[in-house]
Amino acid sequence: MDPIALAAGTALVGAMATDAWQSARTGMITLWRRVRPEQADTVEEELAETRAQVLAARADGESETEQTLAADWQLRLQALLRADPAIAAELRHLLDTRLTPPLTADERTAVGSLVMWAEASGGGRVYQAGRDQHITER
Q1: How far apart are CA 112 and CA 130, in angstroms?
Q2: What does the pLDDT read at residue 103?
Q3: DSSP letter for each residue of the chain
Q4: C-alpha distance from residue 37 to each of 33, 34, 62, 80 (Å)
Q5: Angle, CA 90 vertex, CA 57 and CA 33 arms, to 5°
Q6: So what's the pLDDT on residue 131?
Q7: Cα three-residue angle 5-29-25, rounded to 5 degrees
Q8: Residue ranges of the chain with per-residue pLDDT less than 50
Q9: How far apart are CA 118 and CA 76, in angstroms?
Q10: Euclidean distance between CA atoms 78 and 37, whole angstroms
Q11: What is the pTM of this model?
């Protein structure tokens, strides 16, 4: 899945529980109206439903529900990117200006993505880690 879709879906759901929700909502609906105008009204309703579910999940301490909702929006955003890869820059701008700023530091960390690529040949080894790494072999 595209890292932008992953990050934007996570940030969108996180932003739903903030005071900046209206700005995030407006940005997302504007994007949808441009790319798939026939779905924009439905998406607007679904965003409102998802927000209600996010607020209820947070009140009940159900982080799994929030993760499931984020995964749903990640898939929707991935479909938009597949249909029109040129919107990646617009989605990144939306992520950077409206979705991520209202999040807590922990939520911003969850939004970030890490992409690693390595290739070893001739008996070589590759060690990769997103955080600390301890290698105990000789």
Answers
A1: 11
A2: 85
A3: --HHHHHHHHHHHHHTTSTTHHHHHHHHHHHHHHH-GGGHHHHHHHHHHHHHHHHHHHHHT-HHHHHHHHHHHHHHHHHHHHH-GGGHHHHHHHIIIIISTTS-HHHHHHH----------TT------SS-------
A4: 4, 6, 33, 12
A5: 75
A6: 62
A7: 85
A8: none
A9: 29
A10: 17
A11: 0.77
Residue type, 83: A
Nearest by Cα to 51 from 29, 66, 40, 63:
66
Measured in Å, how far apart are the chain's first and last C-alpha atoms? 36
Burial 64-90 (b: 16+ CB within 10 A, else e): ebbeebbeebbebbbebbeeeeebbeb
CA distances in angstroms from 133 to 117, 126, 137, listed in the order given: 16, 12, 12
Q: What's residue 31's pLDDT?
A: 94
- Encoded tokens for 27: 């940005």
- Rounded distance, CA 122 to CA 115, Å? 24
